[in-house]
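Reply to dn_fold:

You asked what the input looked like. This is it:
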Amino acid sequence: MVSSNSSASIRETSPAPTSLDTLVSHLVASKRSLSSIEHVWRANEIVTSTRVYLEASVITSARTSFLRAGITAQLHTLESVHAHSKAIESEGAKEYGEVLRTFDEADQRLRRTLEGLRTTIVEHSLRPESDQRKNLLDFVDEGGVDKLLAAVEDSANAAKEAHNELVQTNIGFHSDLGRIQNVNDASRSPLHELSKKGTAGGSRSNTAPGSPIPDILQSMEDRAKDMADNLESLVKHFDLCVTAIKHTEGGGDAAQQLADDLPEGMNVGQEIASAAPEPITDQEREDMLEVLANDADQVEDVLAEIRDHINEMETLFDDTTTYMAELDKDHSNVLEAFRQLESLEGRLHGFVAQSQVFVMRWDDEKAKINERMSELESLGDFYSGYLSAYDNLLVEIGRRQFMEQEMEKVLQDAMRKLDTLHEEDSIKREAFKMDYGDFLPVDIWPGLINPPLRFETAQVNGTEKVPDISKSVIQRAIHRVEGKV
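and this is what came back:
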């Protein structure tokens, strides 16, 4: 007898034991070794179960792969929808930021203009003496500015709220996609590792492993065949022990007794033990005993090899069971991902609608903001014009002061000339009266004795005097006006 993997010959020369006790001990050891048939049965059960697993794994893997491919394709489509919504979100945030920046700039310009009005004190000479000191802002209604700014802020807040709702919707949708993707891929890594473990050392590529069960089954079948061959060699050894004892003096009863009560399912040795021994020569008996002795030395090695095989098969079967559990888990995960995908697709309309709602609300609020921004710009232009007009008013007052002074100069010069003419006329009239008055009757011309004409100046319109504003104030106003030009 020789184990299936042993290269040693069972015909090695060794002293042949001839005593009945030795032969009986060989027979007892051989009979005990036949209990290894339980390992062979177990090996057959393992191989049968693994074949069933192989068939089930093919079906489950096909179903899982089909579902996963469909889910992956749907996820790609949904990710495109999500990317489109994210683009709307990003574009909305960009436009919102630009609108706010423009609004802030306009607001700051208006604030600076209002501050300029607030810090510009109206010249006291322009107002009644009873008035308190006032600035330019006191003459306009600032409440309109506050209402306009509040309206812009309300529109900006409404747009921000709509954008935040879209952001939250996108976050939730992305989270749902990620959760489905995680569930869809949850068991792939364990399966990958188990597949590499099952195919390690086999013909399959470890870079893209599939099911490890075909390789495992092939390994199991090879080991089961080796175990069957080893069991067969143990049976032959047992038959040889029975035959040797029967051909030994006094061994017939021992052979009959020891051939009984074999392990269940092991029907060997009884016919040989009960049948009369066939005659053999002494040389044939010596050859038989020599073979028996050599085989007896290998019984433990063969048993150890059978135990090694069954242990290895149990380990492989555990790996197969674990792989099937992971495969079923993977299939369950894919089914769960499919259910979640169905639920998400049921909410897809609301998700898409949310982005459309944002676009409509943003367009509406943006139009309101732009309209009010135009009003804000117009108001800012008006206040800037108001401030500039006040400077020009001061310049105009300066011009009028100059013109009034020039008029007064002309008037004073004219009055001096009129007074000179009046005095000259009076002298000449008096001389005429002295020379000819005594000769002319009084009633010849009633106007002869009238005094010369006298003129007086009177302001006929513009009763208000030009305000008295210092030249320095007017000069600063001129610089500001010229600087703006």
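Residues 199 and 205 are 8 Å apart (CA to CA).
Hope that clears it up.
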